[in-house]
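We modelled the chain as a single entity of 240 amino acids. Its sequence is:
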Amino acid sequence: MKATYVLYLGWFDGNPATLDELPPVEAAKKYVDYMGGAEAILKKAKEDYTQGNYRWVAQVVSKVVFANPDNKEARDLEADALEQLGYQAESGPWRNFYLTGAQELRNGVQKLPTPNTASADTVRAMSPEMFFDFLAVHINGEKAAEAKAVFNVDLGHDGGKYLLELENGVLNHTANAEAKNADATITLDRATLNKIILKEETLKQAEDKGDVKVTGDGAKLDEMLGYMDKFEFWFNIVTP
């Protein structure tokens, strides 16, 4: 979205001061310190709030919240400003973001029921390439930075053979390819793979039943699976 706005130039706006900025929390602490502390910022921000400068109040008080997420006065003031911006927003998505941010500041991230998009029909319609892309997205690049592994995956006559290569924190796959020096070879059919994706059974359970055969260094496969991140559906948007 942002790349589109800046004509596909990426996130960098051309100003070298923004090329390698401090992380949000570290920068916020510096901002608060330079501006005379949280109390001084909030005093001025309240004056701006009474004047209707809600955009600036949300922007500046956000620094206080990132510097000290437990500052309830700052959280409440930013929430008030975001709420006012939400009331004024003509764009539906803008309104939703503003009011969701205000709710998070006041009540934290609410763990509400989430939709389950991994239906059996959806999983069956996934190509093996889509599944391996799914695995690659879940690799934690930092944890797997020094890892190196090669796997052959045989999905049988209907599924085909794939080469998986983990290196430099990235998992790549190649269709119709095999490695002679693979760390391990995993053999299973598509029906078993579907059950694993749908979490109807684990890889270990399928292996114990004989539906999955792992030859070679099985520890390497366990190591790769250990690099998988689990993405939470709910996450912070206005607090660190």
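As a brief sanity check on the tokenised model: The beta strands are 148-154, 161-167, 170-175, 184-187, 213-216. The mean pLDDT is 92.
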